[in-house]
Amino acid sequence: MLLSKIKSRGFKFCADLIGGVGLLRLISLLVGRLEQRTTEAGHIQFPFVQKRVQRSVPIVLYHGVSNEPSPYLPTTSVDVFRSHMQYLADYCHVLDLQDAVERMKAHDLPDRAVVVTLDDGYRDNYLHVFPILTQLSITATIFLATGVIGNGGVLWHDQVCRMISQTTVRSLRKFGSVDGYNLETPGGRQHAQEGILWFLRSLQDEVRSEHILLLARELEVPETASDVGLMLNWQEVREMHHAGIRFGAHTVTHPILTRTSHEHVVQEIRQSKTAIERELDGEVLTFAYPSGRDQDINPVIKDIVRQEGFRCAVSTMAGSNRETDDMYEMKRVGFWDREMNTFGLRFEHFRFCA
Ligand SMILES: [Zn+2]
Fold it and tell me: Ligand 1 centre and the CA of 48: distance in Å?
C-alpha cells in the first residue's frame, strides 16, 4: 500500500516535471517513431528501443462519465475525462473507429492515431461527454445496447449494481463460489459488486436470470427497476450523430455471447445493428462485444459478427492495434489518471510498449 502510494506520487512528480517543461510533445513525437524492442516471445531485449515497425492505434475505453454518485456501474469523473480528451486533442490524431479501420486497411494510418470509445449508451455521454468532444473538436464512437435506449430500461449488470448499492441488508451469505459478502462498508459493497458480476458473467443466460432473481430476494430489493434518466434516448443519439459522433452496435440486452444459444447471438447482433441503422438512417459497421474479455468471444461469434456485415469488432482485452491484427478482436485500454500530465505520460508509455 505504502509502496504503491510512493510509486504513484513519484510518477505524478515525474509527469508534472516533464509536462511542466513542455517535454510531453517531444516524448509523444519520439513514441511515434520508436517502440520497445522485444523478442518473439515478448521479452524485452537489449538495447530496449527500436525504430517503429508499424503504426498502431490505441482505442481508449470508457462507460459512464459523471460526477454524480451512481448506484450503477462506476463512472469516470467529468474532470478526469476532460483531462484525457484535452491531452488526446492536443497531442494525438483522434479518429472514429470506422475511419481508423478503413485507414488501417488502406495503409494510410496517420501518426499518433487514437480512437475514443464509450460502451453501453449512458445518458451522461450526451450531458457531459458530448460538450467536451464538441469543444475540443474531436469525435468518439459510442456502442449502444439498443434494448434500453429511450425506454427507461436498465441493463442487467446495472440492475445488479443497483441492488447491491440500495440494499439495507448488511451481509450476503454464499453467492457463487464465494462464501459471503460483507455489505456494511463501501469497500465491502464494491468487493461484492465485482465478485457477483464476475460470477454472473460466467453463467448461461437463463441460469444468470435465476441467480439475479435470487440475489434480489436475498438483498430484499426489487429485481428490476426502470430509470428514464440512465440511458440515452434516440433523439439525443441523432443529435450527436449529426454533430459527428459515431455509433456502433453492442447487442440488444448485453448478454455474454459465449453463454447463450447460436440463434440468440445472431438475433442480438442483428437487431442492435438494424435498430441503430433505422434510427440514424445510415450503415452501422462497428461492433463491441458485451463484457469483451477473452472468454466472452470465440471464432463462431466473430464469424457471425463478420457475416452480419460489420467491418470490425472491439473487445476489452488490453493492447493496441496494428494493420496486421485481427479486426474482429480489436484491443482496448482504460486509464484512470486524474491529471493531464500523468495521463499523457502513462498513455505514451502504453503506446511505446504495446
Ligand atoms: Zn457493455
Answer: 37
